[in-house]
Structure formats: C-alpha cells, structure tokens
Amino acid sequence: MKYGFFDDLNREYVITNPQTPYPWINYLGSQEFFSLISNTAGGYSFYKDARLRRITRYRYNNVPLDLGGGKYYYINDGEEVWSPGWAPVKKDLDNYECRHGMGYTKILGELNGIKTSITYFVPLNTNAEVHKVVINNKSNVEKNIKLFSFVEWCLWNALDDMTNFQRNYNTGEVEVEDSVIYHKTEYKERRNHYAFFSVNAPIYGFDSDRESFMGTYNGFHNPDAVFKGEPTNSIADGWHPIASHCLEINLKPGETKELVFLLGYIENDPDDKWEGKNIINKKKAKEMIQTFSTIEAVDRALDDLADYWDQLLSKYILDSHDDKLNRMVNIWNQYQCMVTFNLSRSASYFESGIGRGMGFRDSNQDILGFVHQVPDRARERIIDLASTQLEDGGAYHQYQPLTKKGNNEIGGNFNDDPLWLILSTVSYIKETGDYSILDVMTPYDNDESKSKPLSDHLKRSFDHVLNNLGPHGLPLIGRADWNDCLNLNCFSSEPGESFQTTTSKDGRVAESVMIAGMFCYIGEEYARLMEKVGNKEEANRAFAEVRKMREVIMEHGWDGSWFVRAYDDFGRKVGSHENEEGKIFIESQGLCIMGRCGLEDGRAIQALDAVEERLATKYGLVLLNPAYTKYYIEYGEISTYPAGYKENAGIFCHNNAWIMAAEAIVGRGDKAFDYYTRIAPAYTEERSEIHRMEPYVYSQMIAGKDASRFGEAKNSWLTGTASWNFVAISQYILGIKPDFDGLIVDPSIPKGWDGYTVTRQYRGDTYRITVKNPNHVSCGVSKITVDNKEISGNILPLFGDGKLHEVEVILG
Ligand code: BGC
Ligand code: NOJ
C-alpha cells in the first residue's frame, strides 16, 4: 500500500494521506540552522547543536505520535477550525498534500473552499526558517478567516528543558514588538543570543504564553484562543513561552494572499555588550526580517536553494530503464548522504539530538557518500576527525561537534575505528586527485604540539591493527568493531559465568575476523596510496602485511563454508557451524571478500552462497543466523535484543551493501542488484504499510525473519546505510569508480540489462558514459572508446579541459 508517489521531475515525494504509518519527515537547512519537519508539520529547529542550541521544543515518545511539537498553523474560518497540515487539529480536509523536496517541505490543505499552502525552508546562508504561506479563496463567496501561527520555544538546552522543571518554569522571557515575538530566555546572564518569530504583515493579536493560548487542560488540537477566534495578547513570564500570531484575513472570491513568517536565531557578536542591559539587540533580527520581507525575496531564496541542489546532484546522473533505480541514485540516496553529513547521528525521530556526538567510524564512512558532492567540506571533516585520533593510532569513538574534542566518557578502543580514516582519506584523494591533504599538519588528540602530517595518521591507523594482534594473529576486537553490540571481552575465566562489560579498556584476547577483512581491503588501499606517493618501502611493507593477513584469515578465519566472525575471549569461534546459535554473520563475509580473500580458490563464492542460503530474506539480508534466543554474557549486548531486531538478526541495511559489493566483485551482477532492490526504499514503497518508514530514504534496520514484525523498518535517515548503498550501486554495480589515476569503468550488472548511461563530473571534466550490453553479460569490458577513440584498459583518461567527453563502453 502506498501513501503517496514520487514526483521525480520536481525531486519530491508527495504524500497524499496525512496518516502515514509513521511520521515521514524531511530536513531543512544545510549549514548551521537545521529543522526536522514531518508530513503534518511536526518537528523542531536547532542551531548547530541539537542538544545545546535547541530553538523549538519537541517531545519524542509522545501520545499520540508526532504531537510532540511543530510549526503549526490553524485556520478559524468562521465555521470550523482546522490545520492545513491536518495535524494538530486533525480535521478531515477536502484536499491534503505534503511535498518533501530537496531542503524544503510544502504542505497543502484545503477545506471549505480555502486552499492554504505552506512552504517551509531554510534559505542558504541564513539562520532562519521561512514559512511561505499562500491562502486562496476558491469559493464564490467572500471569506473572513483568522489565521494563527504557532511554535513553542525550547529553553535552549534540550536535555535540561525536559528535566529541570524546578528552575526552568521560572526562566522564560519574551518580548513582542510589532509583528515580531522574541524569545530571550537567559539573555541576561548565560548567553548572548535570542530567537524570534515574525510575519511580514500587521497582526490582529498574539500569544506568547502557552497556557493563555491553549487553556490549562487543552492540547495542540484545541487551543482556546483559536477556537474562540481571539488571541489573548499574553506575555509569557516563566512557564512555557510560545509564539503565536493571529491575522485577520479577508478574501474575495478567487483572491489569493501571501505571507512570510520567519523563525530566526540570532547569535550576537562576542563584543556586542548587550548582556546585562535588560534589552536585546534587535538589529540583526530586523535586518533578517527585512531581507525576507517580500514574496519576491522568498521566491528568489527558493530558487537559490533549487540551484544549490541542482549543482550537488549534477555530479553523478544515471539514465536507466528503471525509474526506481534512477530516483534512488539521482535524488534520494544522494540527498540522504548529504543529510548524514550535516546531522551525523544526532537528530532524527529516532535520535533525540541529546545523545550522541559525531562518531569516528560513522563520520568517516559517511564521507564515502558525499565526497563527490562537497569535496572541500569532506576534506575539512577528514582533518577534524584525524585531529581527534590518539597517538597510538587508536581513536576517540566520538567527538562533540561544537568543540570538536574527543569524548572522554566514551573513550576509544573500538579497534575498527582507525581503519575508516584511511578509507575516507583515500576516497577523497581518488575523487579529487588532491594529495596535498596528506601533508596537512594534523594534531593528535587535538593537541597542536602533537601535530604530524595526515599521512602519519594513516600510517598509525594501519599500524594500530598490527600492534594489536591476538593469539591467532587476527586483530584484537577491543570493545567492539563495527558491530557495537558484539562485546566479546569479559573478565572471568569461565564461559557463561563471566562478568562482561562493554567498557573494557584492556581489550583482552577476543579477535575480529571482520577487522582482518577490513585490513585486507583498506590496508591494500593504503599500500596503493603509498605507491602513488612514491613511498615504495612503505608500500611494500603494507602489501606484505596485507598478504600475511589474508593467509591468517584463510587459515584461522575460514569455517569450512564461510568466514568465521570472531574469536571470543576464551578463544572459541563466534559465527561458526560449531555454535548453536549465531552460526554465520554477514560482516566478515562482505569485508573479507572486499579484502579479496578467497577470490582465487572459490571460497568467496562459497561464502556468498552461504549468505544466500542462510541470511537472505525477501526484505533483505539478516545480520546473523540463527538468531540468539538466549543471553550470552560472553557476547554482550547482541544477545539482549529479541530475535530479529537490530544486531541480533535484524536486516542491518548498512552491511547489506558489503554483500552487494562482494557479489559485484565476484561478477554476480544479478545477485548484487537483486539484494540492492530488496532494501532500496523506492522499491519498498508499495509495501509501506509493512515497511512503515519513509519510502524515499534508507532506514538503519528492518526487522528480520525471526521477528514477528518481519519487514518493519526503524531508525530512518541517519545511518551509514546511505553512503554504503550509494557506493554499492554507483561504484560496484554500475561500476563507475573513482581511482587514483582516473575513473575506472567496471560494471557488474544483471545480465538482462541492455545498458545505461551515467553522466559523471569528475576532476573538472564531464564524462557521459554509455554502457552497452549487447551480449547480455554481467561484467567484463570488451571495448571502450573515449571521444570516438578506442582506449586500452578501463581507466578513463583525465583531460583537465573542463569539457564533455563521450565514452562508450561495450560489455562482453
Ligand atoms: C545499537 C547500535 C548502536 C549503538 C550505539 C546500540 O544499542 O544497537 O546499533 O551502534 O547502540 O552506541
Ligand atoms: C550504529 C552505529 O552508529 C554504528 O557505528 C555501528 O557500526 C552500527 N550501529 C552497528 O552496530
């Protein structure tokens, strides 16, 4: 069942039924001011940090869903009260539509002949959200309506706001001047900032105190002021400050009126000494209001935003026979990658914005998905990440976005972390050809006195694995590798009776075959990089270590039919036929094959066949099988989840992409693409009532076959799934792969395809690559011509002339 449709021309998903199975959201903002907005106008805004600079309030696990707060509008048309976004009044509308687009959301509601559309967006380079409101009288009688706006302020620190009521119910302060409601709580002492909500028209009245607006025992759906048609002109004094304008609007038959509301945030200049003066400096707010005082200015800002997205999405454009695939590759997957770049794992309808900082491994992997869109910002991010690395090559697992400092509470010892830094750096260099990043002096642990060139950081990342090998010569897992819930280090000597902790610092002897596979894959990239920069000795050393690791994997990491996942702290296999549960895990199959283990002797194929037999379901590949049904203290959190959820045999969409890549590597394009379509959101659209999450973005997890809610997704938007699935489809399946010396063309596609075209902007040139498949094979390039001249090999030459180059690729 569907709840809307894709409008590919406008790059929008159009929701036509407000009662989606879960709130389907979008993100506004691309620099410092961000908002989440659902299809019924729920959500909130923040500046830079979702925890410390929360602008509007949101209650996460509220009843009913998504009435946690929002940017609501109400219309009292004399007969009825309703909301153009359906919620919060939830009055049935004659027409409803929500268009989630690139950085904007347009919600349209119509009742009693009054059509109202509200376009929400954050203009480029602006710390504000614009609401463009257009009201049209479609009837043939004159209408006199009252329009109410509504936002509820958060008292800045989102965690404190929802916990420290004894204080916070006394701190709220506002000011109202003309049509602007200012939120200035704490402006005197703590902070040199404020927020405001304005409209570019005279108002009939306002409210800034929630209780006066709503009534003590009412909710968002039935505020007193709206139902009476009379605002109370309240000035909040403590309790719950809000901002609500009331406008009287007269509409002749056929008449349209347009309004601009602006929700802005102002951070005063540090030398602007307004603190302590009992007034706020409104200058910057007034300037901002002036900038967006006309519809023309707002429309220009919308055009600028559209240009910005045109440009970001012009780097990789696919033209294939499959609309679903085109929309995933060209629009939604790349859009989601940019959102993960902006938000990391901080604020979604599953991440409360107060929990996590930026993850070291997460942020490095995110780079793979957006480096082609914003290479300069990727470069900056890589240096920020490397600056939190520790001198021994390990890394803080997380850092705070405001301070960019490593998080001491969580610490490090996740032994996969350092390798991801090599991968992100290599992918940046392959995209841009900019080797100078390797020379950037980059501190360890944010200590400038401990700065070394970035290349030194990569070396220490590589060596961190070698310096932490276990009894079988495999890498020690530390607190956990990519799988945060596989916690194998325990403190007592008896299996089953051990005291297990996820914070073990000394990393005992548990070993990870997954990190070993990563080392082969990413370590080889490191070796190739060293070769490119002319450091032969280091390259040879690295190649040799990788070769050695492959041998160790084939000796101790092979279980007979697939790769073992790990060795626990007692030296016993995890993810082996010897285990009663959790016999096979997905991660080591994907990464060992990406690390080119078992390619020559058939073992890679054997492992992938085992994946198909044991892990594949119609909704994607589960993480392990059979699911754990008991708690194993020596495995940790993974066995605490009910069977079929999250890391315990859920369909973890992130690592499905590694299997797609592995299938592509062994040349089985049909299987690679089949797995791709099982989880790609556009292909789940038809079963939205089962999948439940947005059909335009990936979710982290879909409940696996052991779960009663098999096929139901959770945790949409902020997941490494976005970047890895983009890599799988764009580089491994469609096979357009940036490399050190140019673009490699190496498709691995379903045999049935006749071909496709990818237009790729790369290092200043544009390549229009037409792949033809006359013999219906999956892979293997028989001929490539560039600008009508045949080339040898499959690396497209670099021209550096800024021109369009026509490439024809014949498979077979
Ligand atoms: C989740 C993991 C996540 C981790 C982050 C765990 O509870 O299952 O998916 O990576 O928390 O700390
Ligand atoms: C989500 C975390 O953000 C990521 O770092 C981790 O790799 C996966 N969960 C798997 O546990």
From TrEMBL:
What highest taxon heads this organism's lineage? Answer: Bacteria
* The Glycosyl hydrolase 94 catalytic domain, residue ranges: 308-735
Q: Does the keyword 4Fe-4S apply?
A: no
Return the InterPro entries for the record.
6-hairpin_glycosidase_sf, 6hp_glycosidase-like_sf, Gal_mutarotase_sf_dom, GH65_N, GH94_catalytic, GH94_Enzymes, GH94N_CBP, Glyco_hydrolase_94_b-supersand
Q: GO annotations under biological process?
A: carbohydrate metabolic process
| GO MF, one example | glycosyltransferase activity
Q: Which residues form the Glycosyl hydrolase 94 supersandwich domain?
A: 11-293
Q: What is this protein called?
A: Uncharacterized protein
Arranged from A to Z, the UniProt key words for this protein are:
Glycosyltransferase, Transferase
Instruction: Name the SUPFAM superfamilies for this protein.
Output: Galactose mutarotase-like, Six-hairpin glycosidases
Q: Does the keyword Ribonucleoprotein apply?
A: no
Q: To which species is this protein native? A: Herbinix luporum
Cite the source lineage: Bacteria, Bacillati, Bacillota, Clostridia, Lachnospirales
